[in-house]
Amino acid sequence: MKGSITEMMQQAQKMQADMQKAQEALAEQEVTGESGAGLVRVTMNGRHDVRAVTIDDSVLQEEKSVLEDLLGAAVNDAVRKVEAENKKAMSQLTSGLNLPEGFKLPF
Q: Which residues on adjacent β-strands are paired with residue 42?
């Protein structure tokens, strides 16, 4: 029994270290969200920090509200992509754990 507890603790420590590495890698990964068929692009890292915004010159001829809508849509697209990448990476990391549905890691 004692050996299995020690083994479980070692596995938990390894998983924690692996998760830390994965979170650091995800934080540095960049995705690009876009709207208006690529007229507005927002590059964001895994921490949701916006790294770059690109706006096609043709959009500048439109009303301010059009640009605002396109910018908001591009940011939302980037956020969804970051979340999808994070979810994918974490599910790969925890695939063998048989965690209950909706269980969130790290604790």
A: 33, 53
